[in-house]
Predict the structure.
Amino acid sequence: MAPPVWVPYGRGMPTRGIRIASIGGIAIEVHPSWFLIVGIVTYLLAVGFFPNRYEGSVATYWLLGAAAAILVFVTVLIHELAHAVVAIRRGLPVPRITLFIFGGVSHLARQPRSAGEEFVIAAAGPAASLAIAVAIFGVSRLAGGSNEPFGAMFEYLAFVNVILAVFNILPGFPLDGGRVLRSIAWKRTQSFRKATRIAAGTGELFGWGVIATGAVFLFMQQWAPGIWAIMIGWFLLGAARGEANSLRVDTALTRLTARDLMHRTFVKVTPGASIQGVVDEHMIGQGERAVVVANGDHVAGILTVSDLARVPREQWASTPAQRIMTPRADVVTIAADAPAMDVTPLLAQRRLNQVPVIDEGRMIGIITRREFLDRLQIAEEVGEGDKTDNEAEPPPIRTSGSDGPDSR
């Protein structure tokens, strides 16, 4: 029988997938790992579940296995849409839903504003899965039960949705049950940050528990459930830690602007400077990953290590910097007074190593990945124990545009 899937919502989950549809303005995406689990579920159903339920042809087993695998993720999508509908009705935008190897994730554009809001959004998914299970079980009875092809398929779908609902409601953050736990802790402590610590800590313990269960299965030579449990436990462990780290970073960043993170001195070279000279003197000599190409105070562009691949090494000595630099018009910049949270997407999701800081049209500094991490670490150390620990409102999720960070 196929392993159960579970479905959290929020952050710390797979990022972009392949967009396949849009429902009510919500982009539906499929992560590449989804194809792997669909194949695994199809195989397990075709060679194990269906042959043990009724007599039929091999082709029928495989067709029903593929159909059931797809329908499993249709019900997962409905589970996620339940989260999304409740969130949208309460004013929380949900730009997209991603299906991946362990189930699915609804990407909320911001955190819930209250414990009650968190509770109803989290509870909507398991409630939808239980309703689906009841409805599909009724269909399986009408289709002849487990001794008939379609009856067996619908019975399996009902079983998976029961497991989906039950597993999700367990208090393992960031499962739905973990978010319900956070909402309760949030209500009692009046602190989103403290509540997240409680839920994340519980989630880590739960993840270790699932891993330990998997180890027991392996000791009993139950290889498939053992490996699957360890994979799920490891993912839960990482997701819980990721949520806690994200909150810690967000809390530190809410106090800062881009101006606070920038390096005020940066290397300038003239447009005619040779690439070889720039590499020898600044990139290798000083460890700079990027230099500003400028005529006096007029910035023409930026030359980065990645730009060097545009010209063969033997031509570096005779090639001016302006030939391969990224022109200023194409350089992603950030305003000096922009929230520091806006820097994170530029460095992380667009994989930039530096972001120029602009004030009134002039470049006044540059934020490098290394400098950003150093300043962030200092901000976190200085901010330990300050008033943000008692704030009832959560820090905002880092966004840029309509669907989170997505810029160079």
Residues 1-12, 398-408 have pLDDT under 50 and may be disordered. The longest helix spans residues 58-89.
